[in-house]
Amino acid sequence: MSNDALANFATELDGHLTEEGMKLSATIMDNDGAHVIQVEIEDREEFPIFISLDSEQLLCTCYLWHDSEVNNERRCDMLDAMTTLNLPMPLSSFGKVGDQYLIFGAMSAKPTLEDLIHEICVLSDNSLNAIETLQDYLN
Amino acid sequence: MSIWNKLITAVRGGATEVGEAIVDTQALRILDQEMRDARKHLDQAKQSLTGVMAEKMGVDRKVKQLAASVTEHEGYAIKAMESGNDTLALEVAEKIAEISEELDAQQKLLDGYNNNVSQLKKTIAETERNVRAMEREVSIVKTTEAVNKANSAAAAKFSGSNSSMRSATDSLERIKAKQQKRQDQMQAAMELQNEGSGADLSAKLKEAGIVSGAASGNSILERLRAKQQAGG
Fold first, then answer.
1. Which residues in chain A are closer than 8 Å to B147, comparing Cβ atoms?
2. For B134, which residue in chain A has the nearest alpha carbon?
3. CA B42 to CA B218: how far, in whole Å?
4. pLDDT given at position A3
5. ipTM for the whole predicted complex goes beyond 0.90
6. Domain range for residue A76?
7. Cβ-proximal residues to B73 (8 Å cutoff; 6+ apart), any chain
8. Mean pLDDT by 10 residues, chain A (139 residues)
9. I want to staple B213 with a disulfide (CB 3.0 to 4.6 A). Which of A102, B103, B160, B206 is the partner?
10. Residue among A42, A62, A56 nearest A105 (CA)
């Protein structure tokens, strides 16, 4: 059922032109029965947004950098900065899975298409701003 | 161990392993097993809740009957006293004492059931929360795996090498360069547009004879003729 909902979103998102004039392209990926939408934003293809859905929430995630990219001496400062940025950053929060730092936004399991697009745009902006702001902590 | 600790173990996964493997498949398997156990636990808890609630209803009915019986016998006792039949009144009072004792016992039983029911409801709610948390975690882990695969493909596309070569700052620089290029293109297009519309405007002005241009040939000739006439 959640896979159907994701498929619908993927169809709606694919080819959508954002208010800023950036084109979205969306594809569905299947991993062991769990479906994920990969959304690429024109000119920002390096940082695609991944959308996954479970019974409780819809997650939009953008992967930032690997552990290996972090300057070891400044790791604590970076984590401190990320925790501090979590609050003022609109709609998104920092997170980590495995050795991958990420930024994500959680939504209700049934968002409107409009809200989802807004979430994607804000998350993408936040991702670029985050890397720009925190690149001093990276190698 | 709290559920959060288990989840941390699962998503930390292969952080220590070098390279691709981000997910500890062993942890994922354990999580899957725990999810199955928790669901079984949940079903059992729901079943016992149904049983306990049925028993509770039975005791509840009994308590109400006994309480009504106490009231009823109190009425009899008063009537017996009013009619001066103290022997009968005492007999009824003894009966009331007996019923009250039974009522107390049943009330305690009912309190116990009530406790049990709220305890079971709490357990069920907690287990349901845990199952949902685990499902969410499994979904995140599977998403991560899918993303990892996609990331490797993307990295190969952008840098022509494996994913470890692609750094966030490099990618950001590439995006900035693309944005700059786009902006430059837009700027150039706008300048062209301006030039174009400027050319249009001067053509229109010439056409209207407001500025010198094609129409000025005649005026020059006129000026020359006037000069000639003046000279001649």
1. 36, 38, 50, 61, 63
2. A54
3. 101
4. 80
5. no
6. 2-137
7. B92, B95, B96, B99
8. 85 92 90 82 91 88 92 95 93 89 94 95 95 93
9. B206
10. A62
